[in-house]
Amino acid sequence: MNEALLPVLSIAVAVVLAPGPNNFIVMTASANGGVSAALKPAMAILLGTSILIMVSFWGLSVLVTTNEMISLGILLAGAAYLLWMGFSLIKLSLIEDETISESLPLPLGFIGITTFQFLNPKAWLVVTTSASAVMNAGGNSFDLAAVLLGASVIGLSLWSMAGASVKRFLSAPSARRKFHLSMGSVLALSSLALLWQGFSEGNIF
User: Fold this and answer.
1) Distance (Å, rounded) from C-alpha 139 to C-alpha 3?
2) Cβ contacts of residue 2 below 8 Å, gap of 6+?
3) How many angstroms separate the CA atoms of 153 and 145, rounded?
4) Which end of the chain has fewer surrounding CB within 10 Å, N or C?
């Protein structure tokens, strides 16, 4: 990798390590079923990111980030999706069933998680900003993919391990319910934070 891209990689790693919807999704899956259970959502996130990278180099990301109506649509759809995921986990926490499987999956599938990447304003911002930085450093689409996917693998792996580390504390159904309630609340609040940030800054991205 071009040494000029190392600062871009450092920034990308810092961004993906920060708490966010993707990290909470992976952590929840790992906490319920171990690291292996987090592989599916992690792969969906990486696939969505890969497609965003291709879109960015086609120039479509500029249209998305500069068109106010499209940006607003992505913001509202992304916030609604996060809210739905959050309330789904909260609803799950209210189930008084002692036979709940500890490997219970998240309330969305591979395609849903992949699609969410296109509804996540943070993902568009990170890809667009990174693409600009990579091109300024003389890089190409492969360099951008290496930077963003490499950073994503690092971040998702660490959050997955964090989820696995608390799995042993969730053997009791009551503990799992509390965990689902907590993660659901975080995702629901993330949707509100996303809306607040988008509208308070006077623009979407």
Assistant:
1) 10
2) 137, 138, 139, 143
3) 12
4) N
Regions of the chain where pLDDT drops below 50 = 98-99, 101-105, 107
Q: Which of 23, 179, 33, 185 is nearest to 105 (CA)?
A: 33
DSSP 61: H
> How is residue 12 written in tokens?
């990308």
pLDDT of residue 157: 92
Which tens digits make up the pLDDT trace of 154-177? 889 999 999 898 887 877 778 878
* One-letter identity of residue 49: T
d(CA 16, CA 132): 18
Q: Tell me if the pTM is above 0.85.
A: no
- Give the tokens for residue 55: 């879109």
